[in-house]
Structures are given as structure tokens and as C-alpha cells.
Amino acid sequence: MRVSVPATSANLGPGFDTLGLAIAMKNQVVIKPSKFHSVSLRGEGSNNPALKDNNMFISIFNDFYHNLTHKKRNFRFEFQNEVPLSRGLGSSSAVIVSAIASAYAIEGIKLEKQKLLNLALAYENHPDNITPAVMGGFNVATVQDNEVRFLNKSIPKVLKAVVVIPNRPISTQLSRKALPYKYSKEDVIYNISHSSLLTAAFMSENWDMLKCASQDMIHQKYRMKHMPELFDVQKTALSNGSLMSTLSGSGSTLFSVAYVDDSRKLEKALKQKFPHFKVFTCDFDNVGVRIDL
């Protein structure tokens, strides 16, 4: 059985803890019954042996598998990770979603995506991360009465994601601490209006509205101070064809949307100016978690 989950970009501009989308980079795991427990890890994180021994995926998988079956079985887990760790691209959400989905699927137990989302809330309480990991596409999401409520929209092929991954992380904890304790009424209204406009722009496919609608006053400028080069990355992106350019999650990745025809020029400009950062173009993912038995 193979389970794959896409990377995500959450906190989109003004959509703090609300708006997120899925990018076609995937973490995959193949699970096979085995006489002995064993783990192999390739790709992102493979240079860290501790991830094999202290693996969040296996811990969550075992908890759900035992609760569902009351059985103890050994498996071989083969991980192939494309989503970088601690760069704001949803690596934790990918682990959580794939572990829960795997525990159900390996026994042939049906699990609706809505239930998967609600189960994942116990480990990740930010719906803008887990919803695109499960559903794919663009998502506006909230939590109401301990359930994820969301609306989803597929992202058309005319758009590409251009991703800039810096050579060092921004601590999620430090990034949260950088935020003000209080906000002015003006800043709150600014973000509500822009978040609403950004949602409407995605839902109506009004792509020329993205640059205005993706402006933010409550989190990006505070977090990006931990890595000031990101302001220049964002400015360069918006000057070279990006329709919107926002901090991905809590950083340090900077995420842009561009028309297909503009994405090559944008990628080239970013690579030339930031040669020490990883820059690439990829599609969006409109499927979310996928299980192949």
C-alpha cells in the first residue's frame, strides 16, 4: 500500500490560520506486512538517523492501528520524502494525515476525508495546514465545534507555484512569539477585508486581483524580520511576474503564484539574485491525500 500527501502553503498573506493550498511536492510511504518492524527513509530528513527511531508517523500510525484492530502486527515502512522539514511547507501535516489514513487503509477500513480532517485536528489545530493536505487545491477553513469547516477550489493549470526555500529555517515557536500581543482595529479590518478579497479572487479565478488581495498587516512583516532577505525575495518576485508572493506557513519559504508563461522568467530572476536559496517551479495539487492499494 502506498500513501502520498502533498506539501502545503498556509497562512496565505492575510489568511492567517485560515487560507492554504496544496503544492505538487509529495511525501510518500509504502507499507508492507513484515515479520519484523523496519524503516527506510529516503529524501528529506534521510541524513537524520534519529527520525527512524523517533518517527512521528509510526507513533500515530500505531496508536490508530491498535485502537482500530486491537492487534499487534509488524510492518515495513518505506518513506520517500520531498517536503523539506521546518521550512513552512506542511511537513508535519503530511506526516499526520498520511499516518491516520494509512492506519485505516491497511485494514481496508473506509475513512471519509471529512472524518480524517477532524481526526487530524488532535495533532494539528491549524485547519489551513491540514485541509489542503487532505483535499488538495485552495481552501478556506475554520474550526467550529471541534470540526473543520471548509470550502475548496481546484487551481487551474494556467497557474504555477514558484517556491523559494532558504538555506536555513525559521523556528515556528520563535515565529509565533514575534507576533504582537494586540493589534489595532485598523490592522484587523485591513486583514479581514483582504482575506475576504483573496478568497473571492481564488473562488472566481480573478487572478489579477491576487497582488492586491494578498497584502497582510498582522503576521508576515513580523516573522520575516527573522530573515530580512525575505523582504527582498518578495519584492523581486512581485517585480518579475508574480501574481502574489507570501510567506509560506511561518517560514522560511517564500511562495509565489504566476501564470505558466511568466513562471520561467520569475524562477530565473529569483535564481540569479538568490543563488544560495533553492528555487523551483511546480504544479499545484488538486487531489490531496492519495491511497494506492
Automatic annotation (TrEMBL):
Family membership noted in the UniProt record: Belongs to the GHMP kinase family. Homoserine kinase subfamily.
Binding site for ATP: P84, L85, S86, R87, G88, L89, G90, S91, S92, S93, A94
EC numbers on record: 2.7.1.39
Keywords from the named record: Amino-acid biosynthesis, ATP-binding, Cytoplasm, Kinase, Nucleotide-binding, Threonine biosynthesis, Transferase
Function text: Catalyzes the ATP-dependent phosphorylation of L-homoserine to L-homoserine phosphate.
Assigned GO CC terms: cytoplasm
Catalysis performed (reactions): L-homoserine + ATP = O-phospho-L-homoserine + ADP + H(+)
Lineage, uppermost ranks: Bacteria, Pseudomonadati, Campylobacterota, Epsilonproteobacteria, Campylobacterales
Family annotation (InterPro entries): GHMP_kinase_C_dom (IPR013750), GHMP_kinase_C_sf (IPR036554), GHMP_kinase_N_dom (IPR006204), GHMP_knse_ATP-bd_CS (IPR006203), Homoserine_kinase (IPR000870), Ribosomal_Su5_D2-typ_SF (IPR020568), Ribsml_uS5_D2-typ_fold_subgr (IPR014721)
Domain GHMP kinase N-terminal: 69-137
HAMAP family: Homoser_kinase
Compartment(s) where it occurs, according to its Swiss-Prot or TrEMBL record: Cytoplasm
Residue ranges constituting the GHMP kinase C-terminal domain according to the UniProt record: 203-275
SUPFAM superfamilies: GHMP Kinase, C-terminal domain (SSF55060), Ribosomal protein S5 domain 2-like (SSF54211)
Single annotated GO MF: ATP binding
Root EC class: transferase
Pathway: Amino-acid biosynthesis; L-threonine biosynthesis; L-threonine from L-aspartate: step 4/5
The protein's name: Homoserine kinase
GO annotation, biological process: threonine biosynthetic process
